[in-house]
Amino acid sequence: MVLFTHQFCHVVESEDELIDQVFPNMQQHILDEKWLCERSILALKNETVVKINKKILGEIASETSVYNSIDTVMSSDDTTSYPVEFLNSLDLSGVPSHKLELKVGVPVLLMRNLDAPRLCNGTRLRITELGRHIVKATILTGKAKGDNVLIPRIPIIPNNLPFNFKRLKFPLKVVFSMTINKSQGQTLKVAGIHLGTPCFSHGQLYVACSRVCKLQNLHVYAERKNRLT
């Protein structure tokens, strides 16, 4: 068991408090690129990440654009076996989900290499304009930081299924929160750690805690049944 103390970090009492500590006055700072790229909430499971991103996105008072993927099987023999509704429901690791909700100003993570070394898998960006077929964004990380870029829909073909299908999609996901594994190599000014599960290895804990330089900028939340303090 790992023991967290208030001397080690700032322990919060709820998920909402964790969000408020990491992203205070969100509406006021949503267009501040430096502010956005220096903070994130880290979680062990992708389900937790999705929930937190959806909650924060809902707090931003601007119009939501919804982008659904176009999913098709690559063999006509599979058309009846794998209907479009089934393909839409597939939520695969490393593959953008069927439904993507975006707002101007939100930070996103690029999920595919588009134009190395400027636009690589893992590059963080901020949405600046939402078109029907193109998304405009500003690069937040890497040597091309500050560059304005266009992100198109691209075909994505998973290789871990018993059949072949293609998902035409923007290779992006909202990234107020990310998994601990995905945060490796990133330096943050402010970080939140969401301990929604007791299955938390020391290695993952080290990765999460070492994202920040100052412990007073580290905020930790655990559900009461999993509370470590």
UniProtKB/TrEMBL annotation:
Ribonucleoprotein among keywords: no
UniProt cross-references to Pfam families, sorted A to Z: Pif1_2B_dom
Superkingdom of source: Eukaryota
Limits of the DNA helicase Pif1-like 2B domain: 85-130
Keywords: ATP-binding, Helicase, Hydrolase, Nucleotide-binding
GO MF term (any one): helicase activity
Name of the featured protein: ATP-dependent DNA helicase
Gene: pif1
